[in-house]
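cron nightly-structures :: item 1 of 1
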Amino acid sequence: MKWFKHFTNNSTQNQELARILSKFGVEGYGRYFLLVENLVGATEDLGNVPSTTYSVNNWASILHCKPKKVGSFLEYLANVQLIKLQCFENEFVPLFC
């Protein structure tokens, strides 16, 4: 099992995460941490930038949402600079900034 350090007051001290909470509610906040857990968990060497390539349908399953929401959610995270996002046809590759 891998673990990663993160602040315990993210929802109040981190403006970007507070915006996610405001825009998407607790559901979006949870989705963000599902994304973080998936990216960190899939990375062998934590010295590298965590990233994972999945199809839209796989991301929808991981993030517990409909495929249409995946794109808008990941694009929002990229716009507030929490992730960088690469898109290839039916695949998304989120990377931490």
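cron nightly-structures :: done
The radius of gyration is 13 Å.
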